[in-house]
## 1
Amino acid sequence: MTIAAAVLIFGGVALIILGITLANSTFFKVMFIIMSIAMILLGCVMTYFVFLLKEQGDEEPNLFLYDSNSGKNLSADVLTFDLVNKRMGFFMSRVSGSIKEIWTGNLFDNDEAFDGVDELKSLLAYKMIYDLADKDIPALWELYLNASPELISAIAECMRNNGDEFGKYIVKLHSSANGKADKSKKFLLDNKSYLENKMFNCAKNNIDKF
């Protein structure tokens, strides 16, 4: 639509020049000028409507910034850890049937679930580990203890992709747990604020990708 508007505007200007230089009579010159003005005005109106549509929220909903009440993405200034955590909970429910399914499979192998955005994988990795410390419920710790080494390694790899080596400690703790969550629980509870910070900054620094 913007290309058509530009063609009309420049075409109108060209028509004025041609009318003035080539028309043999005053009548034809006036007709050329009238048609030119009409084309320019139409092009301007089309341009106005293009910008109006953009102002009204003609954009993809952002996972963390979209506001269902206004139907628009809010400013990144409103982003908080609580919002990131809440929206990641929504994301988990959207891509998987249950928390158990997330821990017993390996969702990280499914690129389509993340729309090709690697940073979403990092956020899911942080969310899974953060929930262990935040919720601190036996059923969730049981899922962690019974998770495959491949899944834990995938979590560590996704954290590493965010420039973070925190995951290697998770791998070590998981492999040496022997069915007991005590050491992992203490470590994650001690580092809960660290996980919050990493999770928030991962979302904030890549906000345009979601």
Note: Strands lie at 66-67, 72-73.
## 2
Amino acid sequence: MGFGLLLFGYLMLITVPFHGVDVFVDLVGFLFILAAMKKLEAYNIYFLRCKQTAVVMCGVGALTLITQVMSFFVTLPGIVTTATALINAAGMLVFHYFMLHGIRSIARYTELPKWAAKAERNWSITVIYYVAVLALMIPAVESFAGPYFSLPVYVLGLVWLGLNIWLIFNCYARICLEGDEDMPYTPSKFEVAFNEMLKKNKKK
């Protein structure tokens, strides 16, 4: 269904710096996410919007990669790196909005209210985390609050990342059941609900 690709692509978005370059290139991650959303876009409008956001973020990822490579050869003005970081942060916030609301929608439709609630919780944490990160990017705030809040915000980011990975993994395991080719085929809750919806539409 696409959640396996989404999980792999999302893991590729994790920042692993090595000599100033992110080992896991966001551009590659968003290409996998784009492939995932092409499979999921038919199920709700949020996944369609997430696919469109992924297209934009592929461009942002390419821009980020170019600036990282250029920084090895020339000293880029601070405004360039700051602008790139802000554009990337804004795009990531929009991406998470559509991804998490898409998961919430499909979880509700497949009668998995527990995971729909977790998607809503993760979105609330996303907003808190990004507000904190953006606030610390302001020089005046960073100089005053940085020594006290940098570590808590970093820990919050790790928790937020882990919760999102766990959520996507459970969508993969509970909704689409990909990778069970060796087991007797059992329709997932989503397939049953989707087939019932198709039958109702045909009757109309």
Note: Residues 177-185 have pLDDT under 50 and may be disordered.
## 3
Amino acid sequence: MTSDQPTQVAAPEAIDLPSSLTRADWLRMASGFSKLLWSIPLGLLLFTGAISLRWPPLIQLPSYIVAAALYFWGLLILRKVTPFSPAWSHSLRMALLLGFLLFYFSPFIYWWERRPLIDHLSVNVFALVFTVTWILWTINTLVEVISNQLNDKVFMIEARLCRWSVGLFMIIPLLVFLILSTLRASQHGVPLAQFLHNLLYARHAYLLFAGFVMPMTLTLTMIWRTKKRSIAQVIAEENRS
């Protein structure tokens, strides 16, 4: 005899939902990480000039501030998720703080492109780059917290390794580069802004940023997988009901 009950299809990669998170929480998780996912490539495209936006004449803002707004929008959605651990709340607050810093430092590149030999503008541009790298670190921390909530050890290890790659290939090289540049500029009696400007436009300057590709790509992958897992949890809950 055949059963008249409809067959339920299991959601891929879904597990039992933690008791502290609801279906609505996982929907917010998927939406929030979707915004974070698109904010990174959009920011790169706007920053490099691959695509451009035209503001009204009275608005003097860099176009890549749109990507910062998309990132902040994603965080505001994630903020509505029921707090399920102290690590999640702490990392989300840090991500929000870095979002405010991102808005603060964004105009400095706009000004620095027009007056690149002013020291405080150059320092603020490097502070912006450092803020972006710390954002990637924090996003991977959020992913690691979620993987721990899902009891997925492999996913947690991958998120941790991705977070360490941000520190190893982005944060540490930037700090070393800035410290050595400050020392060399002082030794040669050259303003720091001019020294940094000459280095950034040197023939091999791309090597400094080449190391950024791997951790940024890995971070995008982890964000996409987190979004996918969140959607899988929503489908699993719908099948149960």
Note: Residues 23-240 form one domain.
